[in-house]
Amino acid sequence: MMTDQTTLKYTAEHEWVLVDGETATVGITAYAADKLGDVVYVDLPKAGAVVSGGAIVGEIESTKSVGELFAPLDGTILESNADVDADPSLVNSDPFGAGWLIKVNFTALPTLLSFDEYSALIAE
Amino acid sequence: MTDPESRPETDRTSPLHQIHVDGGASFTDFAGWQMPVSYGSDLAEHHAVRTTAGIFDISHMAEILVDGPEAGAFLDYALAGRLSAIAIAQAKYSLLLNPEGGIIDDLVVYRLTDDTFFVVANAGNREAVASALIERAADFDVLVSDLSDAYALIAVQGPNSREIAKATAGITDVSVPLDDLKYYWSTDALFDGLPLLIGRTGYTGEDGFEFYIQADAAAGLWAALSEAGRAFGLVPAGLASRDTLRLEAGMPLYGHELGIDSFPVQAGLGRVVNLKKEGDFVGRAAVEAGPRDGSHVLVGLATEGKRAGRAGYSVVTVSEHDPESVTAVGTVTSGALSPTLGYPIAMAYVDPDALEAGSPLYIDVRGTRIAASVVDLPFYKREK
After folding, report:
1. ipTM for the complex?
2. What are the boundaries of each domain within chain B?
3. What is the CATH number for A86?
4. Which of B42, B73, B103, B209 has the fewest C-beta atoms under 10 angstroms from its C-beta?
């Protein structure tokens, strides 16, 4: 799955958000995946879970550390990525595509970072 | 995602730094050094060391030369082992204790000549080790020199490491053929005509060699080893895989399993302290008295599933009668999902009474209690 990274929205917690109607697909950025190292386990929220923006909703574990997954917006989990659950290395090999983590039916879209803003953030 | 790592705070780099940058390494701060944490996939690097070979830059390690007619006697006094008893070219794992029996550092000591020993210490303990040795040398005819800045250290580890070392261009004049070099022995050699010390030592649980070379020749040696390794599946490997490899091999890491407040016997290193050797040595009285009763002891823990107990997590027991009654009985010092074994492993300091009682143990993994079995160390042992 090819994803144009310039059209995605980002958070300061190194997550990307693809907005399509009222559905947001969320993953972690290549920068974050690289910093984490090889991902070996993910703990993702179940469909139907109600989440609020900024809350911790999951975990992404590498051999050396644990990262927290934040919900970037308020809403309800539609789906978490079963392929990543079965093969967490997808987060490293294709973080913007097959390594997506959750789809959220959101109620309101908060202000998120643009590609340029996020690029500047990680270049600091 | 939380910010996975803070920005580099130090700029100390290895003589091989540019090679790592060119090789696509990501870096981590380790004891004030910017060292490669991985070159892309720490898991792939881990598996390579178990199945073929990996090459590590560990130039951050400290090298201290002890030279003089009383060098053996001095080290018998300064360290926990009987270093005067090792042969020329032999290596020995040892401990530097403080007078209270605490561990200042763990070390590998090579005997180079009758009167010369080479002490290899952890990067983070360089100053503590050098200053303790210098202070303890006051009454001995011996000179202690910190040569850390002059040396680079490259490790080649894995089942193919011997063939790689033998095939490396530029390594000549090897005193002891590598086929005959025993584990924890060393040989001198030349690389491009410059002095090279090769130890059959390592920190991965695999066969392997460590190469001590003057810093300005390290890049050439790394290139030559890498070239020879191409036919043998050699890959550059960083500190992330080094950590999971040593953990599987049950090897302690200073600051995790070892520290100034832990006695050798608590860490399972009682055998490293030689109480039979003649004369006093620093820490002897304290070690003979032993740690206070009930001091926690290091154990290996294995858990099911994929979520690893990690350094700092609590080890707990739960009352049979009241599941709400949870007692902390220990702390994990290192843990990871074992890449080789496929299940989580951890080392932990645990209350000996809880172990003796055989109470089921749990690791508190961020609020979830995961049942843990006490298992023998090492977790992984290579087939010989």
Report:
1. 0.87
2. 12-57+150-248, 293-384
3. 2.40.50.100
4. B73
